[in-house]
Amino acid sequence: MKYPLASLLCLVLATPLGAHPHIFVDTKLEVLVDAEGRLTHLRITWAYDEFYSLLVTEDRGLDPDYDGVLTDAEIASLNGFDMQWIEGFNGDTVLLDGEEEIRLSAPKDVETDFKEGRIITSHLRAVGSTLPSADGLVVKPYDPTYYTAYEVAGKVTVTGNDTCRARVKMPDMTADLRALQADLEKLDTQTDPSEVGLPEIGEALANEVVITCESS
């Protein structure tokens, strides 16, 4: 995920954190399907961990009394803070039809809340003008570098078509993958994994949301 520079500097200077992952995000998904069983949109909700939420609010001078409560105006000032994406960034969300990636729109209908010390944001992403059948599609939320760890939290909701369902498939945690994950966690905050020969493992650790629809 791409973040404001000041917040990234806070993360780099914070010790004694391991290098990867820095940020933990509980992800909720709503799959929107039309009456013909075609996928139209994804509603994506990110609940950031308390530590990263604290860094963001401190960086922006929010919650000066440290009571863990933000005013409506303070919450409004956060809206869109995580939507400043560089060109070509996929929003750490990949939609697959077999091996083919389906492009999603830029985020819209962005909303932000703050509960129990955590920043919670949501956004809507549309499928292109040619709507694919939802049956068999796979949604994978992940950061390739594993700088941010996304975990699909709770039930995935499917809206608009009662014949469609979604299930979460957990990654296959092989011994090699566990070893790589452990090696990443040992790195200090200023070491890029690629500098020590470690590969990007974000995709291998990703949850997969598999959509299925019954034939009419």
Protein architecture, described:
Keywords: Signal. Residues 1-19 form the signal peptide. It comes from Sulfitobacter delicatus. This is ABC-type uncharacterized transport system, substrate-binding protein. Pfam families: DUF1007. This protein is of the alpha+beta class. The chain has one domain (5-213): Acetylcholine Binding Protein, Chain: A, CATH 2.70.170. Helices cover 18% and strands 32% of the residues. It contains four helices and eleven strands. Strands 1, 2, 5, 6, 8 and 9 form a six-stranded mixed sheet that branches. A hairpin with a 2-residue loop joins β5 (108-115) and β6. α1 (5-13) packs across α2 (50-59). It is globular. The model is unreliable at 2-17 (pLDDT under 50).
Concise synopsis of the structure shown:
This protein is an alpha+beta fold and 216 residues long. 18% of the residues lie in helices and 32% in strands.
